[in-house]
Amino acid sequence: MKKLFCILIAVMCLFACKSNTSSPNETTSASDISLTTIKTGGNKMIKVAGKYNVWTKKVGDGKIKVLLLHGGPGFSHDYMECFEDFLPKEGIEFYYYDQLGCGNSDAPSDSTLWNIPRYVEEVEEVRKGLGLDNFYLFGHSWGGMLAMEYLHKYQSHVKGAVLSNMTAGVKGYVTYAAELKKKFFTRGDITVFDSLDRLKQYDSPQYNDLLMNKLYTQVICRLPIQNWPEPLWRAFKKANHTIYIQMQGVDEFHVTGNFKGWEFWDKLPDIKVPTLVLGGIHDEMNPEDMKREGRLLPNSRTYLCPNGSHMSMYDDQQNYFSNLIKFLKDVDACTFTADKK
Questions:
Q1: How confident is the model at residue 36 (pLDDT cuts 50, 70, 90)?
Q2: Long-range CB contacts (< 8 A, 24+ apart) of 295-299?
Q3: CB 129 within 8 A of CB 61
Q4: Cβ distance 253 to 175 under 8 Å?
Q5: CB neighbours (10 Å) of residue 206?
Q6: What single-letter DSSP state applies at residue 57?
Q7: Is the dihedral angle over the CA atoms 169, 220, 78, 322 positive or is it negative?
C-alpha cells in the first residue's frame, strides 16, 4: 500500500510539471489566449465615421497623457517621432494618431471626408476609443487648427492644450507667405517662380528647387535639405497629396482648398483651458500673429523659439521641448500661470 501511494504521488508530480511547462513547439489554444493580455507595442485601431479605422500608438507611461495631432493635412505622425526622445523620460505618456487618409490609417477615396468638421468628430471618436479624459491636446500646424476647432466644441474633456506653429487665420497667413517669398527669393527667382505658377507647372524641377531650397529651408526646417531628419523626410514621402490639395492647395504658399477663408480669431476667447502657444521666430506663420493668438486666449502662455522655424521641434529642439515639458508639468501641478494680457 505504501509503495502504491508513493507511485501515485510521483505520477501526480510528473503531471503537474508537464502541465506547467510548455515546449517551444506547443500551440496555445484560443481559450488560453483569452486569459492573457495580448501585447501590441501600444498600437490600436479605432473605428471612425462608422466604418473606417485609424491607427493610434501609446508611447510611455505616466499620469500626464497627451494626444498628438499631426500637421499636413494629409501627412502622418512620422515626423513627430522625436517626441520619443523627450517626453517618456519625463513621465509623460503620449499617443500618436494618424488621421483618416494618412499613414497607417485607412485611406478611403471618398473626397467628402476631407473637411474640418468631420475631422473634429474624428478626434472625439479617437479620444473615446483611447479612453482619454482630463488629457492634454497637442496640435502642430494643421493639427493646431484642428485642435482649436476641437477645443471650441469639446474642451470640457481637455486639461490643457498646445497650439504649435499655427496661426488663427488664413488671411494673415497668405499675406505673410507673400512677404516671405519676397524676402528669400531674388528678383530673378520671383520671375521664374511666378511664371511656372501661372503655367501650373508645380511638378517642374525648377519650381520644386526654388520651393524646397530657397523657401522651405528657411521657414519649414532651417537645415540644409540633405540634413533634414529621416522622420521628416519619411512624412513627406508618405503624404496623401489628394487630401493636402483639397484642403490646403498645391503647396504651403497656395491656399486654394477648403481652408480658404478660415478665420478663428473671434473664437479664441472661448477657449478657457490652459494653453501654450508654441512657435518659431523664423516660422512660416507670422510670429506677430502667434503673439496675437496668445493674447486673445484668456489662459495662455506664448513661447517662440529664437532659432526655430515651422519644425522648431528639430531646428530649435532644446528650447522647443523644454518649454513644452515645463507647460505640461506646470498645468499638471496646478502651478501654471498665464502671461499678462
A1: low
A2: 295/339, 295/341, 296/168, 296/265, 296/268, 296/269, 297/268, 297/269, 297/271, 298/269, 298/271, 298/272, 298/338, 298/341, 299/271, 299/272, 299/273, 299/274, 299/275, 299/338
A3: no
A4: no
A5: 13
A6: E
A7: negative
Write out the three cell numbers for 258.
477648403
**Among the options 78, 98, 251, 283, which is catalytic?**
283
pLDDT one-digit tens code per residue, 94-123:
999 999 999 999 999 999 999 999 999 999
Angle at 30 between CA 27 and CA 32, to 5 degrees: 80
Average pLDDT, the chain: 91
- 29 is known as an active-site residue: no
Instruction: Name the grid cell of 167.
Output: 496661426
Told to judge if 283 belongs to the known catalytic residues of this protein, a careful annotator would answer yes
Residues 37-51, mean pLDDT to the nearest whole number: 91
Torsion of CA 225, 229, 232, 236, to 10 degrees: 40
Please choose, from the candidates 286, 280, 324, the residue with its C-alpha nearest in 3D space to the C-alpha of residue 82.
324
Torsion angle, alpha carbons of 258, 261, 262, 267, to 10: -150
Catalytic choice (141, 164, 309, 312): 141
Which cell numbers in the block locate residue 21?
A: 511547462
Distance of alpha carbon 275 from alpha carbon 137, whole angstroms: 9
pTM above 0.90, yes or no: no
pLDDT reported for residue 253: 82
| pLDDT at 252 (0 to 100) | 85
